[in-house]
Design goal:
By secondary structure, the chain is mainly α. The chain has one domain. It has a two-stranded antiparallel ribbon with strand order 1-2. The longest helix is centred in the middle third of the chain and has 36 residues.
Length: 125
Amino acid sequence: MAKKSLKNSKHLVELIGSATLRAVALLSRVDKFAFLGVLDASKPEDVARSTLIDALSSVKPEAIAIADEEAVRLLQLARFRTEEMLEHAYTRLQVRFRSGSQIVPISQKGIKACGLFPCCQHPRI
């Protein structure tokens, strides 16, 4: 039964796995994600996430389908904003590290590694 219910919730499971527990708790206040209210943030993160994902099997398939569609939008928005922040950082670092007419090359991967944006070091929303 759980597999049948979870097969159409790939993006929702991805969202639960990548968002902070605080973000999931805030998201549970939205009607379409109200079923996420079973989150127990007092448990360790991995336990809380797996318990929440296991609880999805008891949610109506219609509610899961709607939430999964919304999760797609949220994930796209988060990726867009992350890419936008990285591009901004890349541009700013190039300007900051100019020496005469030479630009010190900085890769976007290097921006992630340098810790300029701590949120970019881990795929969390």
